[in-house]
Write a structure and sequence with these properties.
28 helices; single chain; acetate-CoA ligase (ADP-forming) activity; alpha/beta; D-amino Acid Aminotransferase, Chain A, domain 1; about 900 residues; CoA-bd; Dna Ligase, domain 1; nucleotide-binding
Length: about 900
């Protein structure tokens, strides 16, 4: 697993610091001081061959001469020595190292590669190089050169910038916010963002994860880890480089629209990550997520003593997509009984500027029990009439009383005390009430909670590998692209594009090729006979944008007009682009959709995330209007509609005045088909349909371009090589007959299987649960089972077997690959009352078959020595069984797959 040995690095029992010096300005000395100041409880040693002691701490000549084998080695020595030190640490038994040193370089032949090779020999994990280090308050470890040590808490921070990590520590100290861990990852030679997402997602002390990202190295691994983590707890990211223009030279319109930052935005949205724009918003988001859970809806009740600030809060709430809560009649009566007659009678609940602590408390009690709101924002503008600190005391008392009386999850309460003294913020924070300097910050904090809930709900949707609504002619489409590539071309010609769209049942304007004017007239006469006018367009594999050479003439009504226009188009093109290969003109019927909307749809290739799907406002001014949204495939109808709704043009798809609404699902279905086309034919490097006309009758592609090239495998593992998110692997669905004619249906697990798995666990004995989980298991939380059912199919797979007669789950087998995608760790669990009927053997064979298809080299697992049935089955399947050298009650089992048939 990608979390392999990370616990040894982040919660070690022993630490060695290599490279500390007496120099007070040195990095090593700063880390030494921090480790001592944090009062690390485990064994600690220094290594420096030039000094016998540093600041009263004895120093060994080498790692090998330490009196203990360090779990974690912190390296601050010169870059040229790091590979050798890593090798010595590995031989001594270290589980991993933090390489703080910089200057190791990158790529083949570098010092970094040498260090990585040394670590791999011993199974060591590496954090860094060129990093700030790590801070784990829960184990009193500050192996960093940060100026401060954060308090223990429930936020984890993973940062590509040491300065950002250090800044977060300073902010946290001011806001009484604690951390479960802070890791500066530097150059990510080994341990990367995805590994740490996996680690903190499973960490019970971490309630939310914060990310500072500059760039992603392995997009599929990142998406898999991020989606898995975000299903369990909030993940918030701030990314630098928002203004990078990564697609200036893109040839297709959709390529130009898919800027680098927009693709990251789409990736974060698909992963269920909350993106914030800057550090202040990250801090505020952390403030919210560290203290309260997401509400079930987005209705906000607002309590204030200032009408103006209440109105500002409502304006911001509506702008961000929230809903000002209505007041139920019963609550309005309660408020009438405790408030002066001049209160606002509506939300915001303005209790007037002379409101005292008693009035605040009474109003808040009413709002907290009102079923018409999902959260309450309490705001106070200081006056000379009532003391702000006394009001804060009254509010915290009401909130604490309300929380104590709630059996279910209490609704969030947020606060704004305008211009308050720091002590008031401390009071509110101490009571677990997120508080902010302005109403804008508070409303954003509430909407972060809302967005997190929406993201989790969206993550539960699993797009199918092949939508069932259509059956494309994939073979024909592939032949079209293959023939063009064999011809040495990078673009399909218009006739090929029309055939490609036909293969995927995407309606397009009939298109005819004409080599000269007379052939164009012949095709035009057939169109005139149907009562339509004609469009002519230049046909050249070298002229992508026809408007650049005046290569399109519209609304031709006669044969003479067609003949003349053909000659003029060909002459202009040859004059303006003499080097271009011109094969004639295209002849199409003129499509006039007076009430049709012009849209652009397509796919583009991103160097980091692979294929992206683009949707937006179409037409010749598409880049200038720049109304677009992006999504990572695969798509289903729900995801396609979500993509459409993120644009301004989506509003025009609905009915307005005398214009009927666009046919339901018509546009979304084209997006689904394009995503499927990109999965089937990775040689398509870019495609745009512009415009796609959409109206109440359906959709019609008027013009389209398709760029092609050699397919590149961007991502490891099976599935579409150009997709950062793997589709649901429906090809692994099987109907199987085991012993005595018992029939089971086996398929990859889905998030919605959680209730069924919970029910299955009721039929597993305590002994079998202990054999599976290595510990007594009496209760299973939602978070625990979510980890079992919510997979991303990129690094982990689980097959669940259902009894075909009862449709009840009867067994689950799973495998999770390691961080370098070479080996997978398996686990299996069956209903206790159905053991001995051949299901375990069948599921093990299936997971072995899957591992082979993924290209894994081995399957491994840990089995308790008393689990003799599992050990016997492993031996029968060819596993090698060995006693664990450290844990004598555990056997390590391993099956090599390289030589398997």
């Amino acid at each position: 697993m990608s979390t392999y040995r990370l616990n040894n690095l982040l919660s070690p029992h022993s630490v060695a610091l290599v490279g500390a010096s007496p120099r007070h300005s040195s990095v090593g000395r700063a880390i030494l001081n921090n480790i001592r100041k944090a009062q690390f409880k485990g064994e600690f040693g220094l290594v420096n061959p030039r000094y016998h002691e540093i600041d009263g701490v004895a120093a060994a000549d080498s790692i090998a001469k330490l009196s203990f084998a360090p779990e974690l080695v912190v390296l601050t020595a010169p870059a040229r020595t790091i590979a050798g030190l890593t090798d010595v640490a590995g031989r001594r038994g270290a589980a991993g190292a933090i390489i703080v040193s910089a200057g190791l370089g990158h790529g083949p032949g570098s010092l970094a590669e040498a260090a990585e090779r040394a670590a791999q020999k011993y199974g060591m994990r590496l954090i860094g190089p060129n990093c700030l280090g790590i801070m784990k308050p829960g184990v009193s470890l500050n192996a960093s050169f940060s100026a401060h040590m954060p308090a223990a808490g429930h936020l984890a921070l993973i940062s590509q910038s040491g300065a950002i990590a250090a800044g977060m520590v300073d902010w946290a100290a001011q806001r009484a916010v604690g951390f479960s861990g802070i890791v500066s990852i530097g150059d990510q030679l080994d341990v990367d963002i995805a590994d740490l997402l996996d680690y903190f997602a499973l960490d019970e002390k971490t309630h939310a994860i914060l990310l500072y990202i500059e760039a992603i190295k392995d997009a599929r691994k990142f998406m898999s880890a991020a989606r898995a983590a975000a299903r369990i707890k909030p993940v918030v990211v701030v990314k630098s480089g928002r203004m990078a223009q990564g697609a200036r030279a893109a040839a297709t319109h959709t390529g130009a629209l898919a800027g680098a930052d927009a693709v990251y935005d789409a990736a974060f949205q698909r992963a269920g990550i909350l993106r914030v724009s800057d550090l202040r918003e990250l801090f505020d988001c952390a403030e919210t997520l560290a203290r309260v859970k997401s509400p079930p809806g987005k209705r906000l009740g607002i309590l204030t003593n200032g009408g103006g600030i209440g109105v500002l809060a409502v304006d911001r709430l509506v702008e961000l997509g929230g809903i000002p809560a209505a007041l139920s009649s019963a609550i309005r009566e309660k408020l009438d009984a405790v408030l002066p007659p001049t209160w606002s009678k509506s939300n915001p609940v303005d209790i007037i500027g002379d409101a005292d602590p008693v009035r605040y408390g009474a109003a808040l009690e009413s709002l907290l029990v009102d079923p018409e709101n999902d959260a309450v924002l309490v705001m106070n503008v200081q006056t000379a009439i009532a003391r702000a600190d006394e009001i804060a005391v009254a509010v915290t008392a009401v909130v604490q009383k309300y929380r104590a009386g709630q059996r279910a999850s209490p609704k969030p309460v947020l606060a704004v005390w305008v211009g308050a003294e720091p002590s008031i913020g401390d009071l509110l924070s101490g009571a677990g009430i997120p508080n902010y300097p302005t109403e804008d910050d508070a409303v954003r904090g509430f909407m972060h909670l809302v967005r997190h809930r929406e993201a989790v709900e969206a993550l539960a949707q699993v797009p199918p590998a092949m939508p069932s609504e259509f059956a494309p002619d994939v073979d024909t489409a592939r032949q079209i692209v293959a023939a063009a590539l064999a011809d040495g071309r990078s673009w399909l010609d218009p006739i090929e594009v029309k055939r490609l769209l036909d293969a995927y049942d995407i309606a397009a304007v009939p298109t005819f090729a004409a080599a000269d004017a007379e052939e164009a007239v012949a095709h035009a006469n057939a169109i005139f006979a149907q009562g339509a006018t004609v469009v002519l367009k230049i046909m050249s594999r070298d002229i992508v944008h026809k408007s650049d050479v005046g290569g399109a003439v519209l609304n031709l009504t006669s044969a003479d007009a067609v003949r003349k226009a053909t000659a003029e188009i060909l002459a202009r093109a040859r004059s303006l682009r003499p080097e271009a290969r011109i094969s004639g003109v295209m002849v199409q019927a003129m499509v006039v959709g007076t009430k049709a909307r012009e849209l652009i749809l397509g796919v583009a290739d991103d160097p980091t995330f692979g294929t992206v799907v683009v949707f937006g406002r179409g037409g010749t001014a598409v880049e200038i209007i720049n109304d677009k949204a992006l999504a990572l495939p695969p798509l289903d109808l729900q995801l396609a509609h979500s993509l459409i709704e993120r644009t301004r043009v989506s509003r025009l798809l609905r009915a307005y005045r005398d214009v009927p609404a666009v046919k339901q699902d018509a546009v979304a279905m084209v997006l689904v088909k394009l995503a499927q086309m990109a999965a089937d034919i990775p040689e398509i490097r870019g495609l745009d349909i512009n415009p796609l006309l959409a109206d109440e009758a359906g959709v019609l592609a008027v013009d389209a371009r398709v760029a092609i090239g050699r397919a590149e495998r961007k991502f490891r593992g099976s599935g579409p090589a150009n997709f950062a998110v793997r589709p649901y692997p429906s090809q692994w669905q099987r109907h199987i007959e085991v012993k005595d004619g018992w029939r089971v249906f086996v398929r990859p697990i889905r998030p919605e299987d959680e209730p069924a798995i919970h029910e299955m666990l009721k039929h597993v004995t305590m002994q079998d649960l202990r054999l599976r989980f290595f510990a007594p298991m009496k209760e299973f939380s939602h978070e625990f089972i979510a980890r079992l059912t919510q997979l991303d199919y990129a690094r982990a797979m689980a097959f669940v077997a259902f009894d075909e007669a009862s449709n009840e789950p009867v067994g689950v087998v799973r495998i999770h690959s390691d961080s370098i995608y070479e080996s997978g760790e398996y686990a299996i669990l069956l209903r206790s009352d159905l053991k001995g009927r051949g299901l375990g053997w069948t599921l093990m064979q299936m997971i072995i078959e899957y591992a082979k298809s993924e290209g894994l080299k081995a399957i491994s697992g840990d089995v308790l020595t008393e689990n003799t049935v599992m050990l016997a089955m492993c031996r029968s399947l060819g596993f090698e069984v060995k006693s664990d050298p450290q844990e004598h009650d555990i056997c390590n089992v391993r099956l090599a797959l390289l030589n398997q048939a």
